[in-house]
């Protein structure tokens, strides 16, 4: 059903007992609660800034300055067996392996379908990428809950619903060749995008998160994903145009450079606003023509200029 199965040196599906059965029925509900819980979660877990600690021992990839091809010849480790305890519980739980996380992931995908995500290519991608690999060990028990979770540095991994919804809208049933993501964070959405796009470029402005994403993605060996450290507001003119652009952080407006780097016929999706945010879909219809559609409310971390 998707093109994903031949993309990886190590298929992600080999990491668990993924079932190929899933209902494609979708029941669209206009009353789905979509706002992200990002801010609350960040506040609650700010004390847990473990990602900083996790990053401390990371080594720099000397082969590229700001660009990283995620594929690595190293053996898979983290995705194969995650040992953890249930978040929020002082009781040690049984060890979480990829195998016993496949069922919660499938249940998550089923909920996405019930919430109105209809694109089976997107649902398959969500079913394939092990979200728990991108989440700090103390929170792994919540990996397949439909919530954003803290990843350190006051940032969050996006809520699965919003990831699926935005990709579905950007894709619009098309085969995507070149896609740009602004805001790599921990790398989860980039991994999902890589399932259904020929080439994915993702930019992160926080060096330690760029490093964290590299680390998280290494074991998945995704050959068609390139991570960049930089200010995503400038886009990546050297590889433009993009037939899809997706922003994982909300600005007051969509940076002009990103509009210019959108291919004619391409789609950009972004949260826009400060406290009140909405998803905006921009379609480039001509050399100097773009159309804007305002979609549902959402809640993202802010888009900020510069690098740190
Ligand atoms: N894509 C992530 C979500 C990350 S949260 C996921 O898979 O869940 C949004 C990210 O956008 C943060 O890491 C933040 O640092 C980053 N960000 C904000 N402004 C940015 C900019 N101008 N350029 C690049 N990244 C930016």
N-to-C CA distance: 41 Å
CATH class, named: Alpha Beta
Q: Structural class given helices, strands, pairing?
A: alpha/beta
Strand order of the largest sheet: 1-8-7-6-9-10-11-12
The CATH H-level homologous superfamily? Vaccinia Virus protein VP39
**CATH fold-type name:** Rossmann fold
Number of domains: 1
DSSP helix fraction:
25-40%
The parts where pLDDT drops under 50 for at least 5 residues are 1-68, 70-95
Ligands bound, unique = S-adenosyl-L-homocysteine
**CATH architecture type:** 3-Layer(aba) Sandwich
Beta-strand share of residues: 15-25%
For the largest beta-sheet, the strand count, sense and barrel status come to:
8 strands, mixed
Provide the succession of SSEs. Answer: HHEEEHHEEHEHEHEEHEEE
Alpha-carbon Rg, integer: 18 Å
Q: How many E strands?
A: 12
Topology, please?
Blueprint: H1 38-45, H2 50-55, E1 67-69, E2 81-82, E3 96-97, H3 98-114, H4 120-128, E4 149-152, E5 155-157, H5 160-171, E6 176-182, H6 188-196, E7 197-204, H7 207-218, E8 225-229, E9 242-247, H8 256-260, E10 262-273, E11 277-286, E12 289-298
Parallel strand pairs: 6-7, 6-9, 7-8, 9-10
Antiparallel strand pairs: 1-8, 2-3, 4-5, 10-11, 11-12
Helix pairs in contact: 3-4, 4-6
Bound molecules: S-adenosyl-L-homocysteine.
Residues 155-158, 182-186, 188-189, 203-206, 209, 231-233, 248-249, 301, 303-305 line the site of S-adenosyl-L-homocysteine.
Subcellular location: Cytoplasm
EC number: 2.1.1.77
GO biological process, one term: methylation
